[in-house]
Amino acid sequence: MPNQSSQLPLHIENSSRNSTKNSAPSAGPTGGSLDDVLLKKTLVAGTDPVALDAYVAQGYWNLDPRQLRYLTLAQARGLGRVDFENVRTRTVQA
Fold first, then answer.
1. Do residues 57 and 87 lie in contact, with contact meaning Cβ atoms separated by under 8 Å?
2. Interior CA angle at 8 toward 18 and 29, to 5°?
3. pTM score over 0.85
4. Where are the domains of the chain?
């Protein structure tokens, strides 16, 4: 199946504050302890939502994106690429 990510709109992930430990995924932005929040002040944007999630999973939570089933399923459906290292990137500082 061809990659369909170019047909998708711009995706933005707010990574300004990230839970680092001791918080359940269902706790959301108000769960856990403030001691477990890492202030990154970062937005990640792009047209490939799979690559964005893979980048954030590895960069902020030290997870192997290839081990995250939802990402590999999305890639298999042609929604994007898990191997974000091979996607053109640009860092912009405000």
1. no
2. 20
3. no
4. 5-86
Question: What token pair was written down for 4?
Answer: 């369909």
Give φ, ψ of 7 to 5 degrees. -90, -5
Phi, psi of 17 (to 5 degrees): -135, 125
Helix H or strand E encompassing 7: none
**pLDDT, tens digit (0-9, with 9 covering 90-100), for 7-50:** 558 888 776 666 666 544 545 555 567 677 666 677 788 889 99
Burial class of 89 by CB neighbour count within 10 A (0 to 12, 13 to 18, 19+): exposed
Q: 6-39 burial, b for 16+ CB within 10 Å, e for fewer?
A: eeeeebebebeebbeeebeeeeeeeebeeeeeee
Q: Which two tokens stand for residue 90?
A: 């640009």
